[in-house]
Amino acid sequence: MSKTHSPQTITCKAAVAWGPGEPLSIEEVELAPPQPMEVRIKVISTSLCRSDITFWESRGHIPIFPRIFGHEATGIIESVGEGVTDLHEGDHILTVFTGECKKCRHCKSDKSNMCETLRMERKGLMQSDQKTRFSINGKPIYHFCAVSSFSEYTVLHSGCAIKLSPNVPLGKISVLGCGVAAGLGAAWKVADVGKGSTVVIFGLGTVGLAVAQGAKLRGASRIIGVDINPDKFEMGKVFGITEFINPNDYKQPTQEVIKDITAGGTDYSFECVGDVGVIRTALESCCDGWGMAVIIGVPSGQMELSAHYGPLLSGRTLKGTLLGGWKPKSELPMLIDMYMKKEIQIDEYVTHELPFSDINKAYQLMREGKCLRCVIHVGN
């Protein structure tokens, strides 16, 4: 790693994706200094999320390459841009893919976390000036989810950086920057799961298991997990899953199986797969009158949802959420405190830890369904 005096352009190593599905290549990249309201951080640890796979494969999404993926990370601020007052050089931070400006209509409302300034970045450019901070020989390297943490250093908006106390370990807590927070928030903030309720969760990856943990802590009496990978079932018990359904074991539609065993449907259902067909199944699996289906998964293929109006007319609700509805800078510190007090599980979602040089192995493990979250150690 070599760099000139901050806040000048520096050079560092990054895992660059040159095309859809192509192995990542460790390259030396140039990283511009932080612009107004931005920070440049030294990445310590980053974890691989299913979205990193989805957009890397580019199935159903516009391919944007060359690109640096990664958005769940911890790091140390190396330099700050003009106007940043709440963060300083040396601060430890957790990154998030959707920020909080605290000034727009959504940030001021208690009904939304969809910041108008820092919503999920989709074009591979910094939202402040529609340019990239990464380049190789003067050619732009595109960002991902406003973070791009598969790099020794990265630049992000200060509204996407959550300050951590120096005593918080900068390792496994990186998974709180997306997947775990999304699942807990879906159960607590979006659905507001009640004591004694019945819940069904489609997809037992990190997000689905975080929903299970959230439902368990809220006192749900039945938490049904649905997944075609039987290896997920034992892991599910750790987080509160009480019953399991493998759709491949039944001839009838999954929603009918669920209605049969719950006498009419569940109180809540959560779609954590990213499949429009499963979204419809989730909606049809909850009960009439008050049943709520919550969409959390990011689709990797077909984007258009088709559903019969009947379930909605009968009183069911279909809701979607990003980051579990949390306002990141205002509310995620609460989850960090709960983690430090051992009131919520986070470390248990990390099934593998690898050095930065083995990042392609992490991709392989997740694609094969052999890990929940793999933490990649980038810096010291």
UniProtKB/TrEMBL annotation:
PROSITE patterns: ADH_ZINC (PS00059). Keywords: Metal-binding, NAD, Oxidoreductase, Zinc. Residues 36-163 form the Alcohol dehydrogenase-like N-terminal domain. The lineage of its organism: Eukaryota, Viridiplantae, Streptophyta, Embryophyta, Tracheophyta. Residues 207-337 form the Alcohol dehydrogenase-like C-terminal domain. Homodimer. This is Enoyl reductase (ER) domain-containing protein. GO terms for molecular function: S-(hydroxymethyl)glutathione dehydrogenase [NAD(P)+] activity; zinc ion binding. One of its GO terms (biological process) is formaldehyde catabolic process. GO terms for cellular component: cytosol. Its cofactor is Zn(2+). Belongs to the zinc-containing alcohol dehydrogenase family. Class-III subfamily.
